[in-house]
Amino acid sequence: MVISEKLQKGFGATLISLTVPIMILNIFGGIVSGIWLAILGEWGEIIQGIGLIVFSGLLISFALMPGLLFAGPAIIAMERGKKILGTFLGFLSVLYTYALITIWSIWIMRLFVSSSTESSIIPLLIWSYGVALAPWMWLAQKDQQAGGNEFSIFATFFAQISYILAMIMFFLGATLSTIAMTFAVIMLIAAILQMIIAFGGEIRKLCSKKEVKEALRILEEENNEWDCEGFELVKSYVEKSILSNTRQFLDDVRKGRSIRKYVFATIANISGDLVESGQYHIYRGVLNPMGPGEDLLKIFDSAIDELVIMDELDEEKAQEQKEAIRLSIQEVG
């Protein structure tokens, strides 16, 4: 298992444990604090908050645009194989977004608590939470609906945690400068975590031994040659297999097995497992022509043929494997 997968699972477990209290605050915090402030006669704060919620989403959307100056070149650099440059530019884009969240959140908190009294401090803190984070939650929801930046929820989650901690610190008497520093540190850690999750695989490839890099190069060449959804699927599994079982891979290579043989054997195993899994059938015994199933079978056959050419398999054994995979396809679905 690669580092990014471990972090994703760890983050998922943490997210689940904190989701309920955050959801309660998100759903009821604005209503309860709004009523509380109305009872206290703080109508100016209520109107100001509603106005900011209504218009801040659009304002923040514009404020996020400079981050594209880093995000666009980062994507281009990654596509051209300049992984280090792409990762660096991607980090700058992420850092800009997290800095904007931090500055906005602290400004909102200062705006509302600067005029607070002993009786209004709690409802104003809760009210400011909704005002500060509502636009980010709205933007994250739009991203998810559009199938865009999956990390928008990640950023929003850490912003919520940071703001809740900031509220507690302010209530306990911490200064705004101390709160701002704490908020910024948490968001910086979140930005680094996001980069590790997003680019952990690429970073690991860059730091891999030359044998691993050669295996990944062969895999990328095959991917470019096939240029189809089926091989993209196989490639992702082969990469994970090599990167998570590097010691076994290196042992095989050092015992005399060529890197090319290892790669094609793994391609054959994975494409075979996928095509006979039943996930890509339209009904029993028939692969779905609209999915990657037929390509997976072609990839399996091609990998087996390549293993024959490299004397990893003989013709008879190769034919047996091709017949076995087709029999398995007929029996599942």
Task: Provide structural commentary.
The chain has 333 residues and is mainly alpha-helical. It has two domains: 204 residues, no CATH class; 122 residues, no CATH class. It is 82% helix and 2% strand. It contains 13 helices and two strands. A two-stranded antiparallel sheet has the order 1-2. Helix 8 packs antiparallel against helix 9 and helix 12 packs antiparallel against helix 13. It starts with a helix and ends with a helix. The mean pLDDT is 85.
The percent range for helix content is over 70%
Between the first and last Cα atoms, what is the distance in angstroms? 29 Å
Mind telling me the C-alpha Rg?
27 Å
Count of distinct structural domains: 2
Count of β-strands: 2
Largest sheet data: 2 strands, antiparallel
What is the SS-derived class? Answer: mainly alpha
Q: Quick one: overall form?
A: elongated
Strand order of the largest sheet: 1-2
Describe the structure concisely for a colleague.
The chain is mainly α and 333 residues long. It has helices at 3-40, 43-64, 68-79, 83-113, 121-145, 152-171, 176-206, 210-226, 229-244, 246-254, 259-275, 293-309, 315-331; strands at residues 281-283, 286-287.
Secondary structure blueprint with pairings:
Layout: H1 3-40, H2 43-64, H3 68-79, H4 83-113, H5 121-145, H6 152-171, H7 176-206, H8 210-226, H9 229-244, H10 246-254, H11 259-275, E1 281-283, E2 286-287, H12 293-309, H13 315-331
Helix pairs in contact: 1-5, 1-7, 2-5, 3-4, 4-5, 4-7, 5-6, 6-7, 8-9, 8-11, 9-11, 9-12, 11-12, 12-13
